[in-house]
Amino acid sequence: MRLLIVEDEPKTATYLKKGLTENGFVVDIASEGQEGIFLATTHSYDLIILDVMLPKLDGWAILAAIRRQGLQTPALFLTARGSVTDRVKGLELGADDYLVKPFAFSELLARIRNILRRGQSSVADVFTIADLELDLVRHKATRGGERLVLTSKEFSLLSLLARRVGQVVSRTVIAEQVWDMNFDSDTNIVDVAVRRLRRKVDGPFDKKLIHTIRGVGYVLEDRKNSSDQ
Questions:
Q1: Rounded to the nearest 5 degrees, what angle is found at the Cα of 53, between the Cα atoms of 83 and 80?
Q2: Which of 3, 38, 69, 216 lies in the 20 to 30 Å Cα band around 46?
């Protein structure tokens, strides 16, 4: 799970990143509003944690900007602004929860996990694209009724593409989500992994499902009469 924290107080940001990393999360930090909006809209996050009182652009404006762009990434306000009016404003702007500083880390962790559980409950367990079927619970992929033998990374990559079927997934997002790392733009590890996955998913079949969007990334979709390699 990848989290974005928008927090301008270095000590608090470091404390949050350390604690959440120790609990298995991948954490990015933005120290001001424009950086927060940029990261939230160009990367894929499972949850955004926002302070309200930030330089130049406050947390209210950040969340409003993100929602205007159609992003429904869950958000949690973590702020010293604790009045009822502030809490109501945060929730009405589209936040999923609101926690007032000072806070207990155990409570924050419980609230984060609760929000993430809510999101997972609405996620499909089985994806079907043409004759490709992907079962996330059973960790099983089949094409034309035949079992595909995939490595753990190949299954994670195919799962990412399946969850965003019809949407172009950039190489940067693939690197972050599958390897939990940021790769240099000239690194070809993503392209190599996709080629290997294609050989198993598309190689034996006339209909190709994994397509290249030149200079951007990859998309999984059922195209009529497609032979894209």
A1: 40
A2: 216
Cβ pair 107, 113 in contact under 8 A? no
In whole angstroms, give the CA distance from residue 133 to residue 146: 10
Task: Look at residue 30 and give its three-state secondary structure.
Answer: strand
Gap between the Cα atoms of 7 and 206, Å rounded: 50
List the Cα angle 8/51/46 in 5-degree steps.
Answer: 105
191 DSSP assignment: H
Q: Residue 126: pLDDT band by 50, 70, 90 thresholds? A: confident
Question: If DSSP codes are grouped into helix, strand and coil, which group holds residue 68?
Answer: helix
CA–CA dist 108, 77 (Å, integer):
10
Per DSSP (E only), the strands in 63-166 are 75-79, 97-100, 126-129, 132-135, 140-143, 146-147
For residue 191, report the phi and psi dihedrals to the nearest 5 degrees: -65, -40
Whole-angstrom distance, CA of residue 170 vs CA of residue 189: 13
pLDDT of 130 above 50: yes
What does residue 69 show for φ and ψ, rounded to 5 degrees? -85, 5
Cα angle at 146 between 142 and 148, to 5 degrees? 55
In the prediction, which pLDDT does 120 show?
55
User: pTM to 2 decimals?
Assistant: 0.56
Do 194 and 210 contact (CB within 8 A), yes or no? yes
